[in-house]
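Sample entry (412 residues):
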Amino acid sequence: MHSPARPANDNRPAGIVRGTKEYRHLAFALLMAGFSTFALLYAVQPLLPVFSRSFGISAANASLAVSFSTGAMALAFIPAGILSDRVGRRPVMIASLFVSALLTIASAVVTDWGAQLVLRALIGLALAGVPSVAMAYIAEEVDHGSLGAAMGLYIAGSAIGGMTGRIGVTWVSHFTGWQVAIAAIGVAGLVAGLIFLSSAPRSRGFHAAHHDVGSLATATRRLFADRALPWLYLEGCLLLGTFVTIYNYLGFHLEQPPYGLGQAAIGSIFFLYIIGSFSSAWFGTLAARFGRDRLLWMPVAAMAAGIALSEARSLWLVIVGVAVTTGGLFAAHSTASGWVGARATRDRALAAAFYLLFYYLGSSLFGAAGGLAWDAYGWTGVVLYCFILAAAAVGVAFRLRHIAAVEASSRN
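Predicted structure, serialized as tokens:
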């Protein structure tokens, strides 16, 4: 079967096609990159109640262990993208995977909260070299017709990493303490880095670029002058801000009456991330086939519905609500990030870096601010806060649909 023809303005050389041996190697490498990045980034999230008790800090203060990592990573995306334009995507990703794993192991022996937050920020800085560069790497190396599926695989790996990292840390910490659990995740990150090193194909579509302040400013103006890209950046900000806030405070909610769940039981809820691994790959392919502009609002609306359902008193309804929210987030992120890669035929690395900068700034800022809602109104406050964010994201999705419709009519 022949892959669909590339758009006329896409000048890339023939890329890796789905179904080939090289694509399978790439897919495995992308799964490992996504797994390691999000296992290391979010492994501390289920430990927030443990940190709160161990260090004698509030829930909002404990959430900074996540916010410092995601915020530092967001701010480093642009420098990481510029570096990858000079030296290549693959070398930057390899270095990031190994450095972040080693820093995670180091964080396992730190017992001062201030020093722990410094290390969490450094881990975020190191991890910045994977997500933004991975999007550019995929866009450059993969055939246009296989792009959506490849992006979905990377995000599926992210979902698996986010799930196993959280669950593994929770279960191990239940028996050995949080330090051993964090060290084990760091070792897993080193193994994933070795697999990526041996499996990721060397770049064929990469062409080195050297940026100065003027060229960077010109590229930035070009990206923000695009009708859709700034809205996609805002969408990512709202999506992850909503999602991370739900998971940041879910553990605090479920350890209270009427649930009274233990740490291991709360950690098991992160099995719901497996839904994200399926929804991202499936919906990424579906959206590439039927139109991202037509479908993006659907998983975002599902997120809003899931958030509302999680306010129910029944534990099973809470779990169903969080499951729907999880599937919606990964499907929406797969669609939006794939849209950025497909639309930005120039300055791909920078376009991806801006998307992820806003995506993780949403996690850092909205996730930390959610602590104020928790402290003031408990879980009801968190649900209302997140529902408002999700409703705004639905509005942005319809705005993007309108932009695509206007552009389509102008071409006809």
